[in-house]
Specification:
The chain is an all-alpha fold. The chain is built from eight helices and no strands.
Length: 191
């Protein structure tokens, strides 16, 4: 699998611009959010597989069911994560802030994509995937800088509202590409 280019990532949400209207489901509390969560997980899996042609179609009922399932499966990890950060904050707020930044940069993107791919509670706790980050640290840092850059660009164009759905659907584009190139390909080679 090849690395997705920055320009291709910028163009991705606009390959089928009408499908950006799916983001209007954000206005429907809980049900809309969960349907969009399921949809974004499907998109992330397409990114892992190298599919960047266009936004897929939203299948509301299927994506809602999938989103609910994925949300429930993610709860154990986030309960542990919040408890850990809260506990450290009680001891030393500065250390908790630094740790939160490091986890947010080096740990969560890979574990999120691993969870999206494997779709099991245990996949969120598969800290062995972090070895791929350390083995490919240069590529990983470049990937994260690209992810931040695209997020900033879409935040700026959120002024005209188009950036909001574009930001939402590309929130994991580079992390999923990294996962597909360095984790999934290497695991397939091992088998």
């Amino acid at each position: 699998m090849e690395t997705i280019g920055f320009i291709d990532a910028l163009k991705y949400p606009f390959n089928r611009p009408k499908r950006l209207l799916y983001a209007l489901w954000m206005l429907v509390p809980v049900i809309g959010w969960l349907a969009l969560f399921g949809y974004v997980v499907r998109i992330a899996n397409e990114f892992i597989e190298g599919k960047y042609e266009e936004l897929p179609q939203l299948h509301f009922t299927d994506d809602l069911t999938f989103g609910v399932s994925m949300f429930l499966k993610s709860l154990p990890f986030y309960i542990v994560y919040i408890a850990l950060i809260t506990g450290i904050t009680m001891l030393d707020e500065d250390i908790a802030n630094i740790l939160g930044l490091l986890i947010g940069f080096f740990v969560l993107p890979v574990l999120n994509v691993n969870f999206y791919r494997k779709q099991t509670v245990g996949s969120y706790f598969d800290f062995g995937k972090l070895g791929y980050v350390m083995d490919n640290i240069g590529d990983y840092i470049v990937m994260m800088l690209k992810q931040y850059a695209i997020s900033i660009i879409f935040l700026v164009i959120s002024i005209v509202l188009v950036g909001i759905p574009a930001l939402y659907v590309t929130s994991m584009i580079f992390a999923a590409n990294f996962y597909g190139r360095f984790i999934e390909e290497q695991e397939v080679q091992v088998l």
